[in-house]
């Protein structure tokens, strides 16, 4: 009997942690895709602060690119402003091949490709974004980007 109760508790806990239906999962995916669409729109109008709205505004937010790690929303904003200080450097951003994986009702990750179209070049790379549902909606808590 004790084993049955333990099993039922584990089963209940696991079903409570994960989306209950494909409809709920699709809603989460749509909400995350909207965050990313809003980021692209902000970037393409030259609004780095608007782009950063998709990130968790916390000192615990982690950004990894190349061989460097920066911690915190402000550090990521400063890095973007330093590296993309003109509209020409920002170029035109697109995300493609994005796959959203819902882990549970509060956590998901996205794998995809980013591309910048600029007058002189077209850099591209891959990203993995870890999203968490916060009081302010879905936010990126970890960004691992490569070129």
What does the model show?
This protein has 147 residues and is of the alpha+beta class. It has five helices and six strands. The protein has helices at 2-17, 22-44, 48-52, 73-83, 87-90; strands at 62-65, 68-71, 92-104, 107-117, 124-134, 137-146. The longest helix is centred in the first third of the chain and has 23 residues, at 22-44. The protein is globular and about 50 Å long. The model is unreliable at 3-9 (pLDDT under 50).
What would the keywords be for this entry?
147 residues, alpha+beta, Nuclear Transport Factor 2, Chain: A, six-stranded mixed beta sheet, 6 strands
CATH-derived topology: Nuclear Transport Factor 2, Chain: A
Per DSSP, the total helix count is 5
Largest sheet: 6 strands, mixed
Q: N-to-C SSE series? A: HHHEEHHEEEE
- The CATH first-level class comes to Alpha Beta
In terms of topology, how is this protein built?
Blueprint (H helix, E strand, L loop, with lengths): L1 H16 L4 H23 L3 H5 L9 E4 L2 E4 L1 H11 L3 H4 L1 E13 L2 E11 L6 E11 L2 E10 L1
Parallel strand pairs: 1-6
Antiparallel strand pairs: 1-2, 3-4, 4-5, 5-6
């Amino acid at each position: 009997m004790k084993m049955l109760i333990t099993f039922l508790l584990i089963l209940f806990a696991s079903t409570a942690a994960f989306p209950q239906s494909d409809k709920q999962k699709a809603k989460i995916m749509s909400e995350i895709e909207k965050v990313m669409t809003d980021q692209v729109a902000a970037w393409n109008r030259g609004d780095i602060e608007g782009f950063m709205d998709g990130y968790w505004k916390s000192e615990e937010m982690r950004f990894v690119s190349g061989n460097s790690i920066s911690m915190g929303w402000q550090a990521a904003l400063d890095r973007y402003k330093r590296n993309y200080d003109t509209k020409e450097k920002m170029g035109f951003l697109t995300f493609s091949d994005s796959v959203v994986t819902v882990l549970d009702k509060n956590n998901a990750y996205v794998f995809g490709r980013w591309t910048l179209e600029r007058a002189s070049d077209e850099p591209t790379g891959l990203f993995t974004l870890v999203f968490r549902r916060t009081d302010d909606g879905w936010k990126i808590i970890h960004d691992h980007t490569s070129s």
